[in-house]
Amino acid sequence: MSHVVVIEDEGTVREVVRFHLERAGLRVSAFETASAAQGALGSADALVLDWMLPGESGLAFLRRLRGDPGSRRLPVLMLTARAAEAERVEGLESGADDYLTKPFSAAELVARVRALLRRSLPEAPPQLANGPLMMDLAAADARLAGAALHLTRREFDLLAFLTQNVGRVYARGELLDRVWGADFLGGERTVDQHVTQLRAHLGDDPARPRFLETVRGKGYRMRSWTEEG
To answer: How is this protein annotated for GO cellular component (predicted)?
Structure first.
């Protein structure tokens, strides 16, 4: 499950942002000041940052982040009431990846955060492995203990995504966005159906999964083969 840190000093806005991002299946840590958020940034996958903050401004904090090798590549969406073009340019030139002007819609907020998360995904290696499961992405070939798995394109894409991110839990909505794309109109039940189909291909028992584990109330994850036994 992707972790988004929110830094917004206005309590109402902060809780609205938290609510809608959590509803979209993301894990959210929300803070009033940049200093309070410092400890959470090490595990963050994206940052939603308000321009106007008490003490150190969001803009100054962003410049400091971009000077730190550990946070230089952290995707940042800047929130601000400043709508002038020059100010938007200043925010982007200071290191923001995207810019959202208040007031904003919940749908646009979620879409922009998801877009940042997609762009920040590491490029998949051409071949993936997890124990006896081997996947060749270029050839769209998946094998279990040397035997070919005859998967649909979506089954292959879902299995590849989870195998690339072994051990990480993804909510159904997040999997829809990452594998099917933001324009897909189907519901979360689609993910459940594809996981069921993949388990049949893999000979996986849902009660004692070797590969695809259901994490109650959160989503799915690919177990590391080293967890076996």
So the answer is: cytosol; protein-DNA complex
Neighbouring CB atoms inside 10 A of 85's CB total: 7
Residues with Cβ within 8 Å of 24's Cβ and at least 6 positions away in sequence, in order, are: 110, 113, 114, 173, 174
H or E stretch covering 154: helix 153-164
Helix (H, G, I), strand (E, B) or coil at 52: coil
pLDDT in tens, 124-181: 578 899 999 999 988 889 999 999 999 988 899 999 999 999 999 999 988 988 888 7
Q: Helix, strand or coil for residue 164?
A: helix
CATH code of domain 127-227: 1.10.10.10
**What does the block give as tokens for 179?**
């594998």
pTM above 0.70, yes or no: no
DSSP bridge pairs for 143? 134, 148
Enter the DSSP assignment of 41.
G
Domain with CATH 3.40.50.2300 in the chain: 3-119
Q: Quick one: tokens of 209?
A: 């999964």
Omega within 30 of 0 (cis) for the link into 75:
no
